[in-house]
TrEMBL record:
Source organism, top-level taxon: Eukaryota
Species this chain originates from: Arachis hypogaea (Peanut)
Alphabetized Pfam families for the sequence: K-box, Vps35
One cellular component term from this protein's GO annotations in UniProt: late endosome
Protein name: K-box domain-containing protein
Length: 356
């Protein structure tokens, strides 16, 4: 497989030395300490325009060596730049912020041998590690912006979870100052503490809700088990009652059919199908039935006669009482009439005496 990288025309085994000798006037110690030397080295590397072809396994390792060199250079330059942020007058910080530490990232993006796998496995983890560990707000904000700008968008889409996972580890003050949003630190810490307390409270409430839901679920399951057991018992009881009702129905049906046959036999029907014993039994039944009918009839007549006697006696008593009352009334009338006659006789006698 052929991998193209931007470098100076030379042998494949001396690529690292090309990067090291790009700034031949600077010693390794000066390279670590002097930021201008780092920038000079990167500018010379970026000026190489020839394409170099790597065709062997030994030459393929040069891509990894180049990436490693640029990452180390990025680490040292980032440390130096962070230290310089806290030196000199305040008005010069804006100027020092614009110093291109991100040239290392630009170099990494220009190496054609850096594919998605190398970016995902080597470049991005190392760069994010330095960004998080620098603990400088402005540097973190600037470097994250450089990462997003210099590398392709498809790389960001494939490593979006890694980028988002590193965001909570960054300092938040740089973004606030960049956007001119100023919140007092005490207020911010208080709000963060309240948010954390609220999150813990929500978590506790969720745990309590889960516990209550689990308890309710267990109670519901127990209730369902009890209901299923009761349903089984009810089904067994219903089956027993159905069986008993069916047996009772069969008994009543047999008895009803027997009564129907007996009625037909008593009416003189279907006698030809009976045996002599059955006929004798039927005769005895008829005799007993006749006796019962006669006794019932006699008893009925006696009851009717008794009722008639009681009714006649009652009527006689009523007539006797009525006659007695009439007798009393007539006696009174007779007495009154006699009194009236006596008075009339006396009056007549007195008038007669007076007349004499």
């Amino acid at each position: 497989m052929t991998t193209l990288i931007s470098c100076r025309r030379s042998s494949s085994t001396s690529l690292i030395h090309l990067f090291a000798t790009a700034c031949c006037t600077s010693s390794p110690r000066q390279l670590r300490r002097c930021k201008q030397c780092h920038c000079c080295c990167l500018e010379r590397v970026l000026q190489f325009g020839c394409a170099f072809s790597v065709t062997s396994n030994r030459d393929a390792n040069t891509v990894f060596d180049a990436v490693e060199f640029v990452l180390q250079n990025f680490t040292e330059m980032n440390k130096l730049w962070v230290r310089m942020q806290h030196q000199g007058p305040v008005q010069e910080k804006e100027k020092r912020e614009k110093e291109r530490v991100g040239k290392n990232l630009h170099v990494l993006s220009q190496i054609e041998g850096v594919d998605l796998d190398m970016y995902k496995d080597i470049v991005l983890p190392r760069v994010l590690e330095q960004v998080v560990n620098c603990k400088d707000e402005l540097a973190q904000f600037y470097l994250m912006d450089c990462i997003i700008q210099v590398f392709p968008d498809e790389y960001h889409l494939q490593t979006l979870d890694v980028l988002l996972g590193s965001c909570p580890l960054l300092q938040v003050y740089a973004a606030r100052e960049k956007n001119r949003i100023y919140i007092p630190r005490d207020r911010y810490l208080s709000e963060e503490a309240e948010k954390k307390a609220m999150a813990e409270k929500i978590e506790r409430m969720e745990l309590e809700a889960d516990s209550k839901d689990k308890k309710n679920l267990e109670e519901t399951e127990r209730s369902l088990v009890d209901l299923e057991e009761r349903q089984k018992q009810a089904n067994a009881t219903i089956k027993e009652k159905e069986l008993s009702s069916q047996q009772e129905y069969l008994k009543l049906k047999a008895r009803y059919e027997a009564l129907q046959r007996s009625q037909r036999n008593l009416m003189g029907e279907d006698l030809g199908l009976l045996s002599s014993k059955e006929l004798e039994s039927l005769e005895r039944q008829l005799d007993s039935s006749l006796k019962l009918i006669r006794s019932t009839r006699t008893q009925f007549m006696l009851d009717q006669l008794s009722k008639l006697q009681r009714k006649t006696f009652s009527q006689l008593q009523e007539e006797k009482s009525s006659l007695l009352q009439e007798k009393i009334y007539l006696t009174k009338v007779i007495f009154i009439y006699k009194d009236m006659n006596n008075e009339n006789v006396e009056m007549i006698c007195s008038k007669f005496v007076e007349h004499l």
